[in-house]
Specification:
single chain; 348 residues; alpha+beta; 2,3-Dihydroxybiphenyl 1,2-Dioxygenase, domain 1; eight-stranded mixed β-sheet
Length: 348
C-alpha cells in the first residue's frame, strides 16, 4: 500500500523535505528561517465602492490604507486587515472598474483566500451572509478540526470562512460585528496546480514550510501549524487553466522580518535559479516578486515599516495616501479616482 507524503516524512526524519527537480538537482535544504508566514493577498477587482462595501461592510475588516497602484496610478490600491494591518491579516485589491474582463479560476492560480474566525461563529456568519444576500455553500468539514463555508465577493473572488479554535489573534472590532465573531486574519491560501510537487519543493526547501496535513487531494504546508501560516496545494490536472482578470488573485505575499532577511531570501532564489525583480519600495514594506515553478506570482514582503508611516494608527485608511513619486499628481488623481463612501448603517 502506498504511503501518503505525510506518513513518509513523519516516518523518516532525514526526508522531511521534498526533493527539488529544479535547475539544481543538489538543492541545499536551508535551515535559517526567513519566511514567517503569509503577509497579504492581492486581488484584481472591479468597482471600488463595492470593494469597500464588501470587505469593510459585510466582512468587517478595517480599511488600513487607501492609496494607488504603484504601476498604474489611476487605480486605487486598498488594504484591508486588522486594526493595524498586521502581516497575515491583509487582503488588498486593485479595483480596475466594472469594464474589466472577468477572469477564470483554474490551475496555475491561487483560487481561494480563506479567513479565520472562531469555531463558535458559524451560525452568526451564515445569518450575516444571508442578511446581505451573499451566496455561500453549506458548511463542510476539512481534515478533522476545520469547518468552512465557501463564498465569493461581488467580483467572484473565491473566499472561505474557516471556523477553528487555533487562532489566538484578536481581529478587528468594527463596532457592530461582535468581538468574538470578528475575522482574525487570513487562515490559508489555496493554489491549484497540474502537479504541485515543484511548488511544494520550493516552499519546503527554500521558503521554510513543512508538511502540516495531507489528504488524497490536498497538501497543507505551513511555516508553523497555525492560521496565517498555511498554504494548501491541490493537484487539479483536469481543471481549465486559470485566466487573470476581474475576480482573480494577482499575487500572494510571504512575510520576512526585515531587509536583511529579505536579502538572504533573494540569495536563496538566486541559488535556486529563479528569476526575480529587484527590491521594490512599497512605502509600507519592501517587496521582491517572482513566479514559482507552477506559475503563481509570489512576493517576499518585509514586516515593516508598517501602515502608520504616513497616518496615525487611529486614522488609518481615512485619507488618500500617495507614493512620493505621485504626490505631484495628487490634484489630477483626486479627479480621476472614483469617490468612495464608507459603509453606512445598512451593514450593522
Amino acid at each position: 500500500m502506498n504511503k501518503t507524503m505525510l506518513e513518509i516524512i513523519n516516518s523518516n526524519p532525514e526526508s522531511r523535505n521534498f526533493s527539488s527537480d529544479h535547475n539544481n538537482p543538489l538543492t541545499i535544504i536551508n535551515t535559517m528561517k526567513l519566511i514567517t508566514g503569509l503577509h497579504h493577498v492581492t486581488a484584481i477587482t472591479g468597482n471600488a465602492q463595492e470593494n469597500i462595501d464588501f470587505y469593510t461592510g459585510v466582512l468587517g475588516l478595517r480599511l488600513v490604507k487607501k492609496t494607488v497602484n504603484f504601476d498604474y496610478s489611476d487605480v486605487y490600491h486598498f488594504y484591508f486587515g486588522d486594526e493595524y494591518g498586521t502581516p497575515g491579516t491583509i487582503m488588498t485589491t486593485f479595483p480596475y472598474g466594472k469594464d474589466l474582463i472577468n477572469g477564470r479560476h483554474g490551475k496555475g492560480m491561487l483560487n481561494t483566500t480563506a479567513f479565520s474566525v472562531s469555531i463558535d461563529a458559524l451560525d452568526y456568519w451564515m445569518d450575516r451572509l444571508e442578511q446581505f444576500n451573499i451566496p455561500f455553500k453549506q458548511p463542510q468539514q476539512r481534515f478533522s478540526d476545520e469547518v468552512f463555508i465557501y463564498l465569493e465577493d461581488f467580483d467572484g473572488l473565491g473566499l472561505e470562512l474557516v471556523f477553528n479554535d487555533k487562532d489566538e489573534r484578536k481581529g478587528y472590532y468594527n463596532g457592530y460585528i461582535p468581538k468574538d465573531y470578528a475575522i482574525k486574519g487570513i487562515h490559508h491560501v489555496e493554489i491549484w496546480q497540474d502537479d504541485y510537487q515543484r511548488t511544494a519543493a520550493l516552499l519546503t526547501t527554500q521558503m521554510d514550510h513543512k508538511v502540516i496535513k495531507e489528504t488524497p487531494d490536498r497538501l497543507r504546508l505551513g511555516t508553523d501549524n497555525m492560521p496565517g501560516k498555511y498554504v494548501d496545494l491541490l493537484s487539479t490536472p483536469s481543471a481549465l487553466k486559470g485566466l487573470a482578470g476581474r475576480g482573480t488573485v494577482h499575487h500572494v505575499a510571504f512575510a520576512t522580518p526585515d531587509a536583511v532577511s529579505q536579502l538572504e531570501m533573494v540569495k536563496r532564489l538566486n541559488a535556486y535559479g529563479l528569476e526575480h525583480t529587484e527590491v521594490k519600495d512599497r512605502k509600507y514594506f519592501t517587496s521582491v516578486y517572482f513566479k514559482e515553478p507552477g506559475g503563481v506570482l509570489f512576493e517576499i514582503a518585509t514586516s515593516g515599516p508598517g501602515f502608520d508611516v504616513d497616518e496615525e494608527a487611529a486614522f488609518l485608511g481615512e485619507d488618500l495616501q500617495l507614493p512620493p513619486q505621485f504626490e505631484k499628481r495628487r490634484e489630477r488623481l483626486t479627479e480621476v479616482l472614483p469617490v468612495i463612501n464608507y459603509p453606512t448603517e445598512k451593514f450593522r
